[in-house]
């Protein structure tokens, strides 16, 4: 293996003509895939970007073995880059990965190699999705998903990719749905990502997926994990379960306190924003508890709910309690969490005689 330097990307052609031509695929891969641990500086992102750009050009005229080498290097580059914070460096990486991804979308130059480059399409898309999520460039990440849809006739189906690739692709797709507050679709993607590998993945990766799936499922259907799942995920139980208990109890002050103590742990992800959105669930449960205390009547006075909100210190400073109560109830009705309507003149909440709280 020739040690790579920033000035010798042309070694690709030298290797091809002097060492690789005529050898079998296994030997080609051994020569072409850089053994980065033995390179002079295996963590040099700039060097690796240079190498990948040159290898991408080479893949345009060569069979699948070159694309496999490209994919392995892109995966290594991605693993390094998701720990990087310099925006300029990340943009250089994104540029190199985009070019590599485009190579795998179409392979029509030679019928013999028609499925050669495209076989790595989803592997390369996972690299870009991981980088864009790290950069919080969610619009660009959505563009990658759209590209796989647009070129679906040219590329093999996702199911033909290795299970780990399918799992990661579905996970990042779920993350993008989660960030858009589409929790139903997010839950579906996360569950599919685990079903692909039948939950047989490293513990760290399983916890990472469940860190999103658990709040997504709670926000979508108010469902919490079973005791068996909590037992298998003690860290996530400690993180989420107290929040869910506070939500179910309608305990606003406890919920706010717990959220503040967890903000540092979740500040680097979009999970925190979704947990903050659980405040509507706290208000829902507060209303539900009031309804139960009153004997499950068909009508509730808004003033009673306003008093509950004041006691729980839910109302923003300067907002009249009755106005806040009416606003929050209207919001819950619009979200489908409460079945009924507000009688504005008498300041009453008139509830449906069947399933007044359909999700509780």
From TrEMBL:
A single GO molecular function term of this UniProt record? RNA binding
Which Pfam family name is an example for this entry? PCI
Record domain PCI: where: 167-356
From which domain of life does this come?
Eukaryota
| InterPro entries listed in its UniProt record | Csn12-like, PCI_dom, WH-like_DNA-bd_sf
Please name the PROSITE patterns in this protein's record.
PCI
Q: Which PANTHER family does this one have? A: PCI DOMAIN-CONTAINING PROTEIN 2, UNCHARACTERIZED PROTEASOME COMPONENT REGION PCI-CONTAINING
Family per similarity comment: Belongs to the CSN12 family.
Q: Which protein are we looking at?
A: PCI domain-containing protein
